[in-house]
Design brief:
Radius of gyration: 16 Å
Number of helices: 0
Distance between the termini: 46 Å
Oligomer: single chain
Helix content: under 10%
Number of strands: 5
Order of helices and strands: EEEEE
Shape: elongated
Strand content: 35-45%
Strand order of the largest sheet: 1-4-5
């Protein structure tokens, strides 16, 4: 899913991102990044217009670096 708020239709170029419930994803400059498995709603608002979509994080991959002192 994607959220699209055309800037030509928005009176403000500032987009406010909201995630509910918090804790499953972060949003920075429109890029959604999963934090932990679960579902939430991401809402973008600009110039009195808004759009929402449901985001489901199935699994979050993490990398672990091991240092053995060699």
């Amino acid at each position: 899913s994607s959220l699209s708020i055309p800037s030509a239709n928005a009176t403000s170029h500032v987009v406010v991102w909201r995630v509910a419930p918090a804790g499953f994803v972060t949003v920075a400059n429109g890029v959604v990044t999963g934090i932990k498995a679960g579902s939430c709603t991401v809402t973008a608002t600009a110039g009195g217009k808004s759009a929402s979509c449901t985001v489901t994080v199935a699994e979050v991959e993490t990398a672990q670096l091991l240092y053995d002192g060699v």
